[in-house]
Amino acid sequence: MKNKTILLVEDDASDADLTKRALAKGLILNALVTVNDGQEALDYLFGSGAYTGRDTSDMPALTLLDLKLPKVSGLDVLRRVRTEASTRRMPVVILTSSLEKHDLASSYDLGANSYIRKPVDFGQFVHSVSQLGLYWLGLNEDPPRVE
Questions:
Q1: Alpha helices in 73-144 (DSSP H)
Q2: Is 14 exposed, middle or buried (0-12, 13-18, 19+ CB in 10 A)?
């Protein structure tokens, strides 16, 4: 069984650190790849740019995607992920502080598997992230790869 890697797409270093701490505190010890912007996320997923040569058959078991990203927005990353056969079924959870109804609706319209607002309280955030990990990395049945 391949490693169940988590891809964290987060441009804010303190939010990325908070997410890493919440995962560790929730005992989610999966490998974590963190990228800082939407273009880097696409490069990682499709093996281009700095990730040229990466084994793209080894896709993340879960992608945590912020929406407000530099270079390529989270919604544009999601749009591209859902149009490519190799990533179409990959679980993508929007993890954002956005309260905009447009972001919520657009995320689901583009095929997000879930939309979670980042709680302000660290304890609530740890609880949310550990529940997220338990479900997506433990209980959820991975989708079959598109060949």
A1: 74-83, 101-109, 122-133
A2: exposed
pLDDT at 63 over 50: yes
Q: Which two tokens stand for residue 23?
A: 């995962």
Q: Are 33 and 7 in contact (CB under 8 A)?
A: yes
For the chain, the structural domain boundaries read: 11-136
Specify whether the backbone of 27 is left (phi greater than 0), alpha (psi in -120 to 50) or beta: left
Share of the chain above pLDDT 90, in %: 62
Residue 108 has pLDDT above 70, yes or no: yes
Please tell me the CATH code under which domain 11-136 is placed.
3.40.50.2300
Pair of tokens at residue 133: 């990990």
Indicate yes or no: pTM above 0.90. Answer: yes
Q: Alpha-carbon distance 49 to 39, whole Å?
A: 9
